[in-house]
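Entry type: protein chain
Record version: 2
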Amino acid sequence: MKKTIILFLSSFSLLLTACQPDVNGNLPDSQFYLLGTDGKEIIDVVYYDEQTVAELKVNAYLGGYRGAEGEVTLVADDEVLLKYNETHGTSFMFLPEELYEIPTGSVKVNSESRSVSFVCKLDCQALKEMDDLDDYLLPLTLVSDNLPINPDKQSICYRFSVKNFMISLNNPGLEDVHVTSGEESVYEIPVTVVANAECAQDCHYKLYYLDGATQGAQELMNGLVGYGKIVPGDAYTVTTDNMVQAGKSVSVSTINLNLDKLPDGISYMAVALAKSDLAAENILTDAKVYRIFKDAEILPRDTWSVPYCNVLAGVSTQPDVYGTHLLLDGDFTTIWQAPWRESVNSYDPYYEGWTHISTSSFARLPMFCILDMAQTKKVTGIKLSRRDGRNWDFTKTGEIWLSNDTFGDEDLKNAFGTSVEGVLNISEAESKAWNGKQFTKVADFDFSVVNNNRDRDLTIYFDAKDARYVKVVLTEDPVDKLILSLSEINVIGK
């Protein structure tokens, strides 16, 4: 029985073998052809003016299963150019012979060595001097006496252009850098220089710096991007070889910031490849400007309150709608605002510093509130947000004041940690305690100078100062019943 099965399977196997087609007989013949020519008649090649002699690498390959053996040669072929012009109605000219050099002699090809590269040389300087270089082509063709050549991939035309070689700073313009003291003594900033092509040889460059040693640097940066100190020269060192190496297109230098010598708050320094790039008209487009924030992050407000304001719109039955607590709720639709009618007019009856009391509305100036951060912070900036919705642009100008004064704290112990909700209920002792604290003015602000008064948010930076209390004063004259308001107050610092 086993023998029968074995004989049957053997016979079946022979039958299958006899039925199989001749695969090798159906395989295409081996052919030699130029690589990268699919669907192309012209290949554009770009060189750069820093090159004197450039290489054009022409790659070819022997395809097919069986392989072949023979010799192949690359030649300049004017017939290819004539045919192209005739087909397309163009008038390209043959690239002058003195501008290129094609390798002479044949190259052997077989099944084990199927690919070959022909390296042509071109005179880049001469190419650059040709005003009408776009009108010239270099037609190349593969020829062989003993190798089959694919006629559709046998020839190609090359068109050349020479561009200016350039190195530049990567992503010039303003870049924000955030650092925190106490974490590391040195903070590294990479400065990347890029070339628009691989360097044919080592390309040296020089970096120029706008820092505290540059005359007029402070005024320049303040005029362009707002408040900020200039990084002093002794607050940084630079690690660099000032060179893009041959065969590469990128070089990275490193600015090492000494955080102990870096100013608190916001500061500036700039890097450029040319001294003229540090001028006011060029610095934000051609130089790299670093705006450095040291210990200048938005602080958490979890334990904060706004326990005092001298005036607000208030209704005792609506504590969730009216009050200074809305300045800390993260909602831009809720606001602390001035009253617009008598029924919502709530103000400090003991405050004596009014400079304006409207006779036609219920507006009073100055209008201010005091933020209590519960403990002393190093403050370097204030971020103010106006309301969403109508009348948002009424609030324009004001002042920022800071204090670490403990005057009257005994009288204010019941007010600490509690914002004004609904209406302003305050005792005379509390009023005198709040208004008796010594504040220092650190900044003025004006929303109208930012994007033509179209922005909701405005961040004001100043010299770092220790403070527990922040007083925000609104000074815009409420003519014609303007309703002044704010939506949010955030503090920047450490």
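Comment: The first strand starts at residue 31 and ends at 34.
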